[in-house]
Amino acid sequence: MEINEVQDPDYEVVTISNLGFVDPYGNEGLVILHSDDKREFHMRAFSGEVSRHIASFLDDDHDTVPTIYKMLEDICEANELLLVKVKIYESGDALRANLYLTGKKDLVLRNYRASDAVALAVYYKIPILVRSNMLKSPIEETT
After folding, report:
1. Could you tell me if 43 and 96 are in contact, meaning their C-beta atoms sit under 8 angstroms apart?
2. Residues with Cβ < 8 Å from 74, sequence gap 6 or more?
3. Which residue has the higher pLDDT, 142 or 4?
4. Which of 39, 35, 125, 138 is nearest to 84 (CA)?
5. Which residue, 116, 105, 111, 112, is CA-closest to 81?
6. Residue 4 located in a structural domain
7. What phi, psi does 104 have (nearest 5°)?
8. Host H or E run for residue 121
9. CA-based torsion, 125, 72, 27, 143: positive or negative
10. Which one, 37, 43, 70, 105, has the greatest CB density within 10 A?
11. Could you give the CA distance from residue 100 to residue 90 in angstroms, rounded to a whole number?
């Protein structure tokens, strides 16, 4: 797997078009991911804390990195690995993600929380891929 290899016929590269909270207290995060053809995926039911981390990473603030993300970074540095992409998919009623690392050898970490994967992707400025069948046109979302 090469760093620039992101093509997968079942997945689309997406970017964040909106980020915020579902509730007025900031307890539940919401992120809207969109593809180049403007189809969207609304991801919610994750902690407001993760949403705040994503927001700070989007602002290039890397001073408030959660310790679990820092631990992954330390492990990658020690093993000469780079996180190169994340893939988000549905697993039953939950959203999960695979983390793709490359270096001396390729490694895939499977079945992690999708919200953390999005945060890591923003932190490292790497591609976020979403399974194509999860993307809907904005009109489909509102009906």
Report:
1. no
2. none
3. 142
4. 125
5. 105
6. no
7. -60, -35
8. helix 114-124
9. positive
10. 43
11. 17
Note if the pTM is more than 0.70: yes
Residue whose structure tokens are 């991801």: 43
**For residue range 5-39, what is the model confidence (pLDDT) as tens digits?**
456 889 999 999 999 999 999 999 999 999 999 99
Residue listed under structure tokens 């190169």: 84
Task: Please check the confidence at residue 129 and state whether its pLDDT lies above 70.
Answer: yes
Residue holding tokens 């994750």? 46
Instruction: Indicate whether 52 pLDDT > 90.
Output: yes
Nearest CA-CA partner of 86 in 54, 64, 108: 108
Dihedral sign computed on CA atoms, order 7, 12, 18, 24: negative
Contact 33, 130 (CB under 8 A): yes
The closest of 117, 131, 32, 55 to 83, measured between CA atoms, is 117
Closest CA relative to residue 52, chosen from 34, 64, 70: 64
CA dihedral 94, 92, 73, 48 (to 10 degrees): 0
CATH number for the domain harbouring residue 43 = 3.10.690.10
Burial class (CB in 10 A: 0-12, 13-18, 19+), 103: middle
Structurally, the chain folds into a number of domains equal to: 1
Q: Which domain holds residue 51?
A: 11-142
